[in-house]
Amino acid sequence: MQSILRQQIAFRCPSCATATIGFIGRLHSVSDMLRLKCECGEYALEIKGEKDGRVSLNLPCVFCKDTHTFTISGELFSRDIPTMLPCPHSHHDILFIANENDMPALLERSAGELSLVLSSFEADELSDIQPMEVDDAEAMPDPAIYDVLNFVMRDLEADGKVVCPCKKGPYELRFTDFGAEAVCSSCGASYKFYAMSGASAESYLEADKIELT
Asked: Where along the chain do its domains lie?
């Protein structure tokens, strides 16, 4: 007799990046709420049934450290096809619904994506890619924008075309709500890159120099 595969739900903790997995039980009434907490104790996924048969989720995000709210059909918890929900800012998957056989592959792919993002930003720790404070209008930095602006910065710096009052450096590239900012670590002078898309970032490839003030 073929065994019935149980459905699981999983998310990755914004604090320790560990994947927390739980089995999905039936929500018997609209007052029912399931809480799946990471072993580190910092974050938890909350699942609550709605009157119309849908399910609301309060989901902590490993990429932007915000808590996203989703409302989905309860049928997604029983179908055979895996379901993933993405962060609305970074567009990387942050919630996974699948049977116990399919879940390991989803989480392995998720770990690979997270590793790639860290590598793209030359970051060692998860906190290095997470904004300190996030609101609904704030977007997760795009690695493509970072790559272009970082190239512009380092290329101009190598040619001596980064002009700074103290002329010392080194220069850091920090993401902001308008794009990015080059900042001198010695005197604090800065230069603003207004780049919210790949195309606007590429326009800086034509820059002859940048001047920090």
From this structure: 7-121, 143-211
